[in-house]
Amino acid sequence: AEKVRIAMVVKSLGNGFFDAAHEGAKEAARELGDVEVIYTGPTTPTAEGQIEIVNSLISQKVDAIVISANDANALVPITKRAMQRGVKVLSFDSGIAKGGRLMQLNPSNAELIGLKQIQMAAEAIGGAGDVAILSATAQATNQNIWIGEMKKALARPEFSRMKLVATVYGDDQSDKSYREAIGLLRSHPGLKAIIAPTTVGINAAGKAVVDEKLVGKVYVTGLGLPSEMAGHVKSGAVKSFAIWNPIDLGYAATYAAYQFVKGKAQGKEGESIAVGRMGSIKLDAAGEAALAPPFTYDASNVDKFAKIF
Amino acid sequence: MSSMSSMNEPASPPRSRYRIDEKARFQPRDLLRHWEALLAILLVLVCAVNGLLLPHFFDPYNLADSTFNFSEKAMIALPMALLIICREIDISVSAIIALASVAMGLANQAGVPPLGLLLVAIATGTACGLLNGALVTRLGLPSIVVTIGSMSLFRGLASVVLGDQAFTQYPEVLGDWGQGYFFDVLPRPFVVWLLAAVVFAVLLHVTRWGRRLYAIGNNPVAARFSGVAVDRYRLALFVLTGAMAGLAAFFLTGRIGSTRPNIAMGWELEIITVVILGGVSIAGGTGSIGGVMLSVLVMGMLTYGLALANIPGIIMTIVVGALLLATIAIPRLLRGRQGAGR
Amino acid sequence: MSSHVMSIPGTALHPPQAPARSAMRAVADDSTAPVLSLSGIGKRFQGVVALQDVGFTVRPGEVMALLGENGAGKSTLVKILTGIHQPDEGSIHLGGREVRFASAQDAMRGGITAVHQETVMFEELSVAENIWIGRQPLCGTPRRIDWRRMEDEARALFARLEVDLPVRARVKDLSVAQRHFVEIARALSQQAQVVIMDEPTAALSHHEIGELYRIIGQLRRAGTAVIFISHKFDEIYAVADRYTVLRDGRFIASGELADITEQQLVALMVGREVGQVFSRAASNTEDQTAPVLEVKHLSHPSEFDDVSFAVRPGEILGFYGLVGAGRSEVMHALFGLSPEAQGAVWIDGREVKLCSPAQAIAHGLAYVPEDRQRQGALLSLPIFQNITLPVLPGIGFFLRRHRRREIDIARRLCEQLELKASHFHQHVAQLSGGNQQKVVLAKWLATQPRVLILDEPTKGIDIGSKAAVHRFIGELVAQGLAVILVSSELPEVMGMSDRIVVMHQGRVQQVFSRAEASAEALAAAASGGLHADAATATLAGEATWH
Amino acid sequence: MALNFLTSLRASSAPGREAGEPLWQRREPLLALLTVVLILLVGVRAPVFLSAQSMDNLLTDSAITIMLALAQMLVILTRGIDLSVASNLALSGMMSALLAMHFPALPVGVFILMAVLIGLMLGLLNGWLIGYLELPPIVVTLGSMSVYRGMVFVLSGGAWVSSRNMPADFIAFPLARLGGLTHLVWLGALAVVAIWFLARHTRFGRDLYAIGNDPAAAAYVGIASRGRLLWTYGLSGAMAGLAGYLWVARYAVAYTEIAYGFELTVIAACVIGGVSIAGGVGQVSGAVLGALFLSVINNALPIMRISPFWQSALTGLVILCAVVLNARGKQGRRKQILPLHGQKSVITGSRA
Ligand SMILES: Nc1ncnc2c1ncn2[C@@H]1O[C@H](COP(=O)(O)OP(=O)(O)OP(=O)(O)O)[C@@H](O)[C@H]1O
Ligand SMILES: Nc1ncnc2c1ncn2[C@@H]1O[C@H](COP(=O)(O)OP(=O)(O)OP(=O)(O)O)[C@@H](O)[C@H]1O
Ligand SMILES: [Mg+2]
Ligand SMILES: [Mg+2]
Question: Which atom of ligand 2 lies at the shortest distance from residue D335's CA?
């Protein structure tokens, strides 16, 4: 029979996180048997690049698209058209605004992610002190959502002794992130922690802390892949960081897309979708579902996972 | 001193000793010397190969859809070609798109109707072009230098206004223009581009304005000495480029239904690449709109084909870069080096 | 040292006296072996035959004049000899050995050097570096440029040339004439066996040419062979021993200059008899005719001051001065090219504002600039597009429909000027220097001006064409055109002009009527003095106003 | 006998090599002053910027920009431009990182040498196309910029090489200190001296000025432009290669997009430093100051707590201002025919 063709569109190629998600997708395809996965993404993380790709996927008449969007709104028109042409569109990781997709699979609950990062920071610095956020670009959708959640978490009484002093953007460029990190360290002498919800950022901040000989005084935490962060955990600049399992995420997203193609899922509120070995996921009012809380890595386990993703 | 004229003065103007033909004698192989001919062959080749290898390539709907990927860039390629013919360049075009789109977003929030948004976009682009042009012509600065600076400035202003926010909620009509069709088959941005291309082609190849643009690109000093208001033409071209970038911003904003400061990032180099592939010499004075149109189509079909084959975008940049190098290097290699010297 | 050089520039009538020639001729008698000999040289440019089977010899210590019409192939030959072009066929023997020059460096090493027709200058570099560029003396370890020695040697060169130039000045601050001397110094610095000068006098004024002759004399005495290219016969007879004539890329004749008259030479060059230059009778316009153009108190902050003059229809107003006197700048201002200039311009008795060339053209002015390459020709546009550029408004908006008219305009003018080209779509870059000048001239005649400003209009034009140009100007003037003729050639100014304005250091020094003008008086005024003969002591344009 | 056509010559025998305008009218001192004023202004707002540590970091941070700006200056002097530096940097950086990952036992010198050699090869390819095939530099380097960047992806398979994969001494070298200054600063200083010597005191360097002033004339005086161009782009490539290693090691990470868009920063540094895009004009001091100027801005903005959203706009504004100031300095210097006011005319007259 014809194979079900599911395209996985990622923010940009050459990103270890998505490469791992691709592994998960392939695992799902193997399990399902009649699925062909097309893994693709633009050169630079731009919405326009993804739009071009979705356009060509429509032309190829793929059955489903699972996409991690560079811009929640910019992709809506094109994915709407894809759905008009009968392509099932799901977003994962970084979502598309409602109306532009059938469902959004959050790697975890945004609230949990925000909370987790604040918790890690609090743990590292003993619950009190100045913290700063070093993000990717000011336009990155999910980073912005998490930053919002972090701010909410900081308002909780248990974090009342922590103060967010700055939010800066490193544009996912190592040199700019590094310079911004140094700038944070300089202009906020009392800074205790830098939270970077992006791999380039957490890397650069870790390096900056080491170079400034502030290991033990300033801690870096945030979201990153074990393989890319192992070095900084070793150096001591990073005590712990978090990430969800991208393999599971890719697996579940692909599995869910298959269910949509086969008509076993419609994307209605409260609907439960079976996603193989991950059990089932439940859609909320916004058509979103979340997998699991992010997993924390530290010196004890990072080397083990560094070999996997 | 020597004697006076020994020639009898003819009553009528003297016939010259030299005959000057109107045109060089036509030779069929001259046709192949034309860049446009090579591009046309390349286009046919690209389409044929794609059609053979990719089952979905020749689907008319797909072809129509594929034009959305390049129409906006192609709109800017037209005035950019004129600029490059005039020995100028504008690196800030994509930043102008961002700023114009932000202006549209602001206007939209203020309740300006769709037609007004178009005007706002074009007006913003025009203003940006005016700034570039004024700096280049009034202060005599090299355009590449000016536009590197203004690129940062324009995009920076967009980011000042928007911060980490985005403008959304554009009216439905904009989406129709951005990715809708005329008569359900003709993609609107593409049709607009074609119309613009015809206007530009007439402007450049038929009118005396166009003739003067070539003159300026050829030798700006001599053009000025010949009564061409060189700076006014330059200024007008920068303004025109800005305005077309504004127009492109209108379509792009409509197509993606939102505005962020990093919209259209990096387009300037793609646009310049297309123009150069179209046979417009970076040294000024040569090039044609036909060539630019063909090159837009070649690039469009090529990237579309590669995308259909799911070849990663970064490989595409290698292909495009190599194509650019090959198209300028191969003719030179074939002609040999005997054309060297002065 | 060199006491025989005329002590007061310009006192002698042209040609300036060349240093005693007979004494030197002895060096180059027939028995000497040739230092350079060419045979069967051929060169093609994309099908155009520039040279075909050219051969001649040059002996040490002789000055060989290379003659030919515009486009005869002289400059191409120079470029072949200096390694810039490679010949398609034929051989070059230097000092008895066959040589092949792959590059200009090769030729230099071989001992051939040239002052090219186009100026070869590096504006941002110092005078000394311009002389030694690519060959700077080195010293020390690591090997580095020995600046002091380079400058000292440059100074020594200028001392030898008896020219006073600061070696550290940047060339962009030099005048045209000064640049030429830098080029000559460069050529001399190479101790070459053969020095080629391709129209070296085109930008030099009268007495600077005298300096050049002296330098050629020095070379000759040192046993250097000189190939001298010029379209001016007075110079050729003053400086050269032998001649070689090219026509249409072919070798025509060679021989002793003493054995041939100017007429015969011209006949060899052109292949027929031609008329002579400077053959215009004074205009017959009475002084009462109202001037078509009046310029009153034109000033510029740095270039010129309080310049006033007037031209009547049917009159030629000459402008004479040394290079750098500011004549071109005045014309630029008049033509709307320098916004800083102040003053009044009246046309037909009404004051007009000339803020741009377009306005000037609209008011009937036309300006043929002196720098053909930079200001005149659009080298990679077709001939006809060059010619119609200033008259486009008169042709129509949609040019495609009027191609015929454009070609007709171009054809009429090109035939009158005897342009040598193969077709009208040919790029101007493919024409020889003189033919390019004709295209520029045609461009301005196409505007059918009422006042034609000619800035060195016959620079680099061969004798036959010069006659054509002069005759043509004469005809136009006879039809009521007013002409301003800026020229550094005394014979040309004196022969053509009805009145002559002499400028010096940005100011009008004196105005001469045709009758008053003598070579001595003009030259003296140009170098800043008032000549006794023109004792009316009419200062600065006063006389111009009736 | 002196000729009296010297009357229009004003610029004469000023002390120093480059005769001409007095010191305060020249661009470089002005720019130096501007940089110092900028540093002080930032210091007023954020005194920590003036601390020794911060200055040290500023120098370290500007080293790579300075090195690339110097090489770019040589290229621009010849009327060229090298848009491929950032891609070249990424490619040679990635290749040396991959090498380090697979052969961690090799000494650091080998990785540096490899990076330089790879950069040199990439640069020579540009140089060959530009010098020997006489193709326009902007087009060639635009093309190679895409190709080189794509190659980074192909070679790395899109994966990162992160600090875990790099040997410790590979990472440590750029920031290791010698006599109180980081290796990066020393390398930057070395590059300044070397390029200064090259540009000022070798035939190679002077030929570049000549080529930029008038390429056709350069051929007429026998300058072998092709070879010169080949090696100029080669040098630019080698410098980018070295910068590639330094970049990757300093930030302890290599991925496809490192230094994306950095070529524009480098060119902007040259332009601010008064290197004329039209060729033939430019000083080592200018390029260095231009690069320093940009580094000061880039380092100061984060420290000054200026809203991140204003940074790009401010950078653009500053570039435009610097360029406009440069242009104003250039205007008004034209030849002068009239004797200057209050100065007697300089007719030297003829010697009898
Ligand atoms: N690069 C070139 N490409 C094509 N044709 C050329 C080129 N250079 C010269 N020619 C042609 O070669 C012929 C000889 O030109 P050349 O410049 O040698 O003449 P010339 O004798 O120096 O004339 P003039 O006195 O006007 O300087 C001309 O017909 C010219 O059109
Ligand atoms: N210092 C200089 N720098 C650049 N260009 C110069 C310089 N001096 C002279 N020139 C060039 O030479 C031309 C002639 O100079 P200028 O206008 O000063 O004198 P002129 O009286 O017109 O001389 P002529 O017409 O005899 O050449 C100018 O138009 C200019 O292009
Ligand atoms: Mg010639
Ligand atoms: Mg002049």
Answer: 1
Whether C61 is in the pocket of ligand 1, judged by its Cβ within 6 Å, is no
Say yes or no for a CB contact (<8 Å) between A203 and D253: yes
Does residue D99 belong to the interface with chain B, where contact is any CB pair within 8 Å?
A: no
Domain annotation for chain C: domains and CATH numbers: 29-270 (3.40.50.300), 288-364+449-536 (3.40.50.300), 377-448 (no CATH)
Q: Which amino acid is at C57?
A: T
- Return the exposure string of C487-519: e unless at least 16 CB atoms fall within 10 Å of the residue's CB, then b: bbbbbbbbbbbbbbbbbbbbbbbbbbebebbbb
What pLDDT is attached to residue B250?
96
Who among B154, B162, B324 is closest to D143 (CB)? B324
Kindly determine whether residue A73 and residue B256, on different chains, have CB atoms separated by under 8 Å.
Answer: yes
Rounded average pLDDT over D70-79 = 96
Alpha-carbon distances, residue C532 vs C519, C520, C521, C535 (angstroms): 13, 10, 8, 5
- Partners of C502 in the β-ladder: C320, C510
Tell me which fold the domain D31-39+51-327 belongs to. Answer: ABC transporter involved in vitamin B12 uptake, BtuC (1.10.3470)
Cα C200 from Cα C180, distance rounded (Å): 7
C460 alpha carbon, closest ligand = 1
**Does C162 touch chain D if contact means CB atoms closer than 8 Å?**
yes
- C472, C477, C481, C483: CA torsion to nearest 10: 80
Shortest Cα distance, chain B CAs vs residue C342, angstroms: 19
Q: Please indicate whether chains C and A are in contact, defined as at least 3 beta carbon pairs under 8 Å.
A: no
In tens, the pLDDT along C350-372 reads 888 888 898 999 999 999 998 88
Q: What is the tens place of the pLDDT at every residue in B3-31? A: 333 333 333 445 566 777 777 776 666 66
Residues of C in contact with D218 (CB under 8 A): 122, 133
Record: contact C104-D222, CB cut-off 8 A? yes
Please name the residue ranges forming H helices in C320-402: 327-334, 357-362, 383-388, 392-395
Residue D308 has its nearest CB partner, among A169, A227, A228, at A169
Q: Is B227 helix (H, G, I), strand (E, B) or coil?
A: coil
* CATH, range B61-265: 1.10.3470.10
Q: Domain ranges for chain D, please list them.
A: 31-39+51-327
Residues with CB under 6 A from ligand 2: C 172-176, 321, 323-329, 370-371, 455-456, 486, 488; D 335, 337
> DSSP letters of D52-82?
HHHHHHHHHHHHHHHHHHHHHHHHHHTT---
The mean pLDDT value for D298-310 works out to 85
C505 to chain D: which residues are within 8 Å by CB? 7, 337-339, 345
Strands D161-162 and D253-254: antiparallel
**pLDDT class for D346, splitting at 50, 70, 90?**
very low
Mean pLDDT value across residues A217-241: 89
Who contacts A308 (Cβ-Cβ below 8 Å, separation ≥6)?
Answer: A20, A226, A227, A247
Instruction: Tell me, yes or no, if B317 comes closer than 8 A to chain D by beta carbon.
Output: yes
- All residues of chain A having their beta carbon less than 8 Å from the beta carbon of residue B303 are 52
- Note whether C7 and D350 are within 8 A (CB): yes
Average of per-residue pLDDT values in chain D:
84
Sorted by where each begins, the domain ranges of chain B are 61-265
Give C491's contacts in chain B (Cβ within 8 Å): 1
Q: HSE-up of C497 (CA within 13 Å, CB side)?
A: 31
With an 8 Å Cβ cutoff, is D154 touching chain B? Answer: yes
Tell whether A36 is within 8 A of chain B (Cβ).
Answer: no
pTM of the model: 0.86
Position in ligand 2 atom list of the atom nearest CA C369: 29
pLDDT at D338: 58
- Other CB atoms within 10 Å distance of the CB of residue C226: 24
